């Protein structure tokens, strides 16, 4: 799953912005401080997401003899991250 606008994103108060495209999301919360903190968290998580996927994939590929359970965990995590997982039925889409 990839964002519609390019990374990196940054927090600007209660907005998450892409410096090229402008506002990506307006963030809501009970207080201004909550909104600012939520926007910072969203931008941080979005920017780190591609690296986390690469890390999970490369780390798990480094083990030649992963158990079936670990191979299944890796497959499920990567499918969920790529938007290829049906969360309602807890299974791969288009299986």
Count of β-strands:
5
* Average pLDDT for all residues: 81
Uncertain runs: none
Radius of gyration: 17 Å
Number of spatially distinct domains: 2
Strand order of the largest sheet: 1-2-3
- The proportion of strand residues reads 15-25%
- Mind summarizing the main beta sheet? 3 strands, antiparallel
Tell me roughly what share of residues is in helical segments: 40-55%
Structural class: alpha+beta
Written as H for each helix and E for each strand, in order along the chain, the element string is EEEHHEE
What global shape is seen? elongated
Total count of helical runs of at least 4 residues: 2
Describe the protein's topology:
Elements: E1 9-12, E2 15-18, E3 22-26, H1 32-61, H2 68-81, E4 85-86, E5 91-92
Antiparallel strand pairs: 1-2, 2-3, 4-5
How is this structure best described in words?
The protein has 95 residues and is of the alpha+beta class. The chain folds into 2 domains: 1-49, no CATH class; 63-95, no CATH class. Helix content is 46%, strand content 18%. The chain has 2 helices and 5 strands, in the order βββααββ. The strands form 2 sheets. The protein has a 3-stranded antiparallel beta sheet with strand order 1-2-3. It has a two-stranded antiparallel ribbon with strand order 4-5. Strand 1 and strand 2 (15-18) form a beta hairpin. Helix 1 (32-61) crosses helix 2 (68-81). The longest helix is centred in the middle third of the chain and has 30 residues, at 32-61. It starts with 8 loop residues before the first strand and ends with a strand. 4% of the residues are buried.
């Amino acid at each position: 799953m990839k964002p519609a606008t390019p990374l990196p994103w940054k927090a600007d108060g209660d907005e998450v912005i892409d410096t090229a495209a402008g506002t990506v999301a307006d963030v809501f919360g009970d207080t201004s401080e909550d909104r600012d903190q939520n926007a910072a968290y969203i931008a941080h998580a979005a920017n780190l997401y591609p690296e986390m996927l690469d890390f999970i994939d490369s780390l798990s590929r480094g083990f030649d003899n992963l158990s079936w359970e670990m191979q299944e965990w890796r497959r499920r995590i990567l499918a969920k991250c790529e938007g290829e997982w049906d969360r309602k039925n807890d299974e791969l889409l288009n299986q």
